[in-house]
Structure formats: C-alpha cells, structure tokens
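Dear colleagues,

As part of the handover before I leave the project, I'm documenting each prediction I ran so the next person doesn't have to rerun anything. This entry is a single chain, and its sequence is reproduced below.
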Amino acid sequence: MPLRAQVNPGNSKVLVVDDDESMRRLLSAWLTKAGYLVCEARDGSEALKRIKDECPDFLITDWEMPLLNGLDLCRQVREMDLPHYVYILFLSAKTSSEEMISALEQGADEFIRKPVYQGELMARIRAGKRLLEMERRLSQMARTDSLTGMLTQRSFFDSLEKEWIRSEKLQLPISCVMIDLDFFKRINDLHGHPAGDVVLKAVSQQMTKSAGASELLCRYGGEEFCIIMPETLETDAINWAERLRESLSEMPISVGDKTLRITASFGVSQRYPDTRSVSALIDQADQALLCAKRSGRDRVVGYESLRDAADVNWENDQQTELFRGVEARHVMSPVVLCLREMETVGQAAELFLRSRLNSTPVVDENGKLLGILSEKDLMAAMVSLDAWKLPISEVMKPNVITYEESTPIRTIYDFLCRVSIRRIVVVNDNCPVGTISRATLLRWFRNMVLSRGLMSEELLQSMGVNRSDGRSQERLLETAKQLAFHASKMHNYVESEEEDVVPYIVGEATGIQELVTDLLAYSRFVHHSAFAESDDCGMD
C-alpha cells in the first residue's frame, strides 16, 4: 500500500528502556522484525548516555525503573539539545488519567498501557513515524534556501558554531570559501530575474556536486555563497575552489533559447592562530574575495597571500627598523566625517563637492562601520535622477577591508603592496577612526626616512632636498605660511553664520594634515642648518 511505503521504517532507530530484560527482548524482537534498528538500556541513566552518543528517532520507556525513572528520563530528554526531535512512548501499568497527564506534560508523545500488544505498538510507532517525517520536512524547509537547497544563513551559522567548537577541541584545521558570481546583476537586468534564478540553481547544483559530504554549503545572500570545509587546510581549499571556478566558467547554462556563461570570484581562508571566532574566519575569506573581485574577478585568492610579506627588497636592517613599534593609529589619516546609512545620494554628492572628499565611511546610528562610499559609487548612481533620492546604503560598497588601529603598520604596508586595493579603513571596535591609503604610506615613509637622516646626500639632492643650500629653510617658511593660511580660513568658517560649516572644516583640516607631515619632514634639516649658523655666529 502507498501509505506503508511512505512510512517504511528504513533506518529509523528505536531505543527501548526497561529494567525487565524479558520485556526489552520482546519489544526488540517485534521492532527488529518490522525493520527498525533497535538498541536497549536497562534504566534511565544508561538511556541518557546512549542518547548523547547516538540520538534515536524513537524512545520507548517504562515508567518504574531504578536510578532514573521514565518520567524523569522524559523530562531530561526534552531539556537536551539534540540534533532532531525524539518521539517518546511511555509503557506502564499505571492507568489513571492523572498519571497519563503527568507523562504527557513531561514531554511524552504516546502512552501505552501494559500488557503491550504487538499490533497496537506497531500502529503507534507508524503514526509517530508520519509525524517525524512531517516535522523533519518542515525543519528542512526552514533550514534551507528554497531555490538552491543550501543552508540559510541562520542554520548555517548554527551548524558552523558546532563545527568550530569541534575544530578547536580536536585541533583540526577548518577553511572557509566565499564565492560571488561575477556581474550577476547584468543577467537579471538583461534576461530577467527568472533567468537569474535558473543560473543560481545551476551554480548551486554544481557546487553541491563538487563538495564533499562533510562540507557546509550556504546561500549567503543574493549571488554570494559560503562553504565551510572541516579538516581542510587553506591550500587544499584553494585547489578545490580553483577546480570549481574552472568548472563554472566552462558550464553552459540554458535559459530558454539562450545559453549563458558565468564566472565567479573566490576568497579562501583557513583558521589561523589569531582567528578568534567564526565571524573572523568568514571575514578573512571575505577580504580575500574582495581582493579577487578588485583584482580582475574570475580568480581564487587565498588569505595567506594577503598575510605574506610583499616582494620588497630591504637593503639593510636600519630600513626594516622604520616599521618597528609603528601601528596603524600612528600613520592613519583620521576620519573627520562619516555618512549615516540613511542619508541620500544627493546629500552625499553635495557633501563630497563641498568638503573635497573622494570617499568616506558609512556608519549606522551607533557609529558602527557598514561600508564605504566613493566618488565612483556616486557617479554610477547619478545617471538616474531618481537615484539621488536613494539612501546611500543602497549604492555604497559593503565589503570594506579593515584593520584594528593597533595593527602593525608593516602588515598594512605588505597588504597594500600586494593587492590592487588603494585604501583600507582603520577601526576601533568596528567604528571607523581613520584610513590608510598608498599615498598615506608613501608620505609617511618619505617623512620618516627624511627625519631619521637615512638618505644619502646624493639621493636627497635628487629629491630636491639639500642640507646646505638653504632650501629647507625656504620650504619650512612656505609650509608655515600655508598652515597659517588654512588655519585662518578654518577660523573664519567657524565664526561664520553658515548653518553647516563641517564640509569646509573637513576640507581645511585635510590640507592642514598634509602640510603638518611635510613640516615635520623638513624640520630636521632646518634645525640642523639653523644651529650650524648659530654656532658660526658664536665663533665669530
């Protein structure tokens, strides 16, 4: 019959708990004959250990038992964090309504009076099987994305936390792969969202086919996917990602009468000793993914390559010493202005024009970093007048490479030397406090070398810097004049009756900051020459 086929026991596991050995043997014989996998326990305490080791689908328990009775066993099972629901049947000679209610309130699903009849027991087991199947179908629907069949973000993180704990406990490697389909928006724009759904489904099927049974696959959002690979080093995860990248690029996807091709970008990271949490691991892979996208797409980037030292030739230990003890906070350009996520594109454009900014962090109402907005983002949005009313959260770049302000500057220097990204954001508790760009590092490095006198006279002259030609004094005077000019303008702005002076102050503060670094760089030579002139005068 179709109904019996639907509730076929298959590999359903049943735990029989009774201190009466003859009763255990009888029930086990009936259940085994019907196709169930059966194990036994003599009392509630032994049953709890078995449930923790291997969670059954059904629990059939007697009421009166030594050590831990059936009622307490039922209550404790319902308090346990188990991988799935356990259907509990009580067996007892107790027949009063109060006793039945007590068992049901402790979490029992069925109550069977002794003596037990085989037909009644098997019928109630089959009824329980139908309920379990329905519960697990609903659970599966809640846990998985309806289009791709992959885990949703919430269920993904639940599973990932458990895998993370296991990895830490057993000291096993674990890697994360972040995947983003390249130019996916074009497919939706050109062929419609149904075509995009066809592509997402085909890609997810290929990912599932390529992944092993132990991997956790998640549709992370839109066209972005996340895969956790337990017991896998980053190098092996990169090899897997490279094979998947090639298979995706070669896979034709039929959409109606058209054949589409798609590529994907991959970011890969394993857990390192300083990777403190699940979110940190995913963030590392996300940083690598961002580099893959920024450096041309259709490629795999490993986080290790971002951590490695850049290919820079250090001439001597003295130059290497420039980085010693220097952190991001010492070099960064302070963030003097952030945009709120609900400010509009038009407001941001006006602010950029008035303050001479070319990018700025975007924060939430608590000042936490959400993304970064650049002139390029605004240019892409300005082609539509309607877009000027959009909140900047819809056009900003949400993927921002960040470093804590205590990060050694050598780490950031190596990163910016290796990748095509021009700027990173410095944060403190995920609040943006500064930015470091290649220009920031270039200016800092130049000034540090000059101030420490590490350049030869020949190299200094090639840069237009000469200790003895008096130009340092001229440079210092000119820089001081410029500083005074900008400071005066800032003072006037503050005293003005303008409603919003912030953009003007930001512009002047930016100019002052650059001039101050130049002032520090040349002060060493002016100081040297000025003292030399004073000594000469004294000798005369």
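Confidence is low (pLDDT under 50) at residues 1-8, 309-316, 527-540. Residues 502-539 form the longest helix (38 residues).

All the best with the project,
I.
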